[in-house]
Design brief:
191 residues, alpha/beta, Rossmann fold, 5-stranded parallel beta sheet, binds adenosine-5'-diphosphate
């Protein structure tokens, strides 16, 4: 099962991803986490990525695509994976489709975790992370709305999108996530 979780910053993707990979026993590919590891290790890619991340901007595609492509080729990703934070733009989604197609694979389903903007800001103020400065956080939300939200249409047209309400307890939201996954499973076994 190859699943993508899409949601604005602060939507609670991390929590739901953790539960989902525990349930499905597939690797969790978070580009945000991969980038933070590169930044911490001060690799050339990490040093360049940090300049964008600090400003709430998207990291250039060559860095992202190289990183994701390498990880997707690892043997533990053969039977599936959960993509978190990628794809984030239409070109990234198209590149992902090409990468998977070359290996006779495809995206099985996309889950949108929908949370209103005022709730995102409220949650951000309650947690603390280096790129959680209020102004930068607002930029990340805007980047989501402008660059990432069009992906919802892209996957919706392919009949792969499940939009779920991201408000409620982690348990309530996870029940909705599981229901979406069951629907993807029914779709893939029908092929
Ligand atoms: P969030 O989903 O909370 O915005 P992430 O942890 O997914 O945060 O990503 C943190 C930062 O890493 C982003 O603001 C962006 O600068 C960069 N980043 C992560 N994934 C991508 C991607 N697919 N394309 C471009 N930049 C990315």
């Amino acid at each position: 099962m190859r699943i993508i979780l899409i949601g604005p910053p602060g939507a609670g993707k991390g929590t739901q991803c953790q539960r989902l990979v525990d349930l499905l026993r597939i690797p969790h590919l978070s580009t945000g986490e991969m980038l933070r590891a590169e930044v911490k290790a001060a690799t050339p890619a990490g040093v360049e990525a940090a300049r964008y991340m600090e400003r709430g901007q998207l990291v250039p595609d060559p860095i992202i695509l190289g990183m994701v492509n390498r990880r997707l080729s690892d043997s533990d990703c053969r039977d599936g994976c959960l993509l978190d934070g990628f794809p984030r733009t239409l070109p990234q989604a198209e590149t992902l489709d090409d990468l998977l197609e070359r290996q006779a694979m495809s995206v099985d389903g996309v889950i949108e975790l929908a949370v209103p903007r005022d709730e995102l800001v409220r949650r951000m103020l309650a947690r603390k992370r280096a790129d959680d400065d209020p102004e930068i956080f607002a930029k990340r939300i805007t980047s989501f709305e402008v660059q990432t939200a069009p992906l919802l249409d892209y996957y919706g047209r392919q009949g792969k999108l499940a939009s779920i309400d991201g408000l409620g307890t982690a348990d309530e939201i996870f029940a909705r996530v599981r229901e979406a996954v069951r629907r993807f499973e029914r779709n893939t076994t029908r092929h």
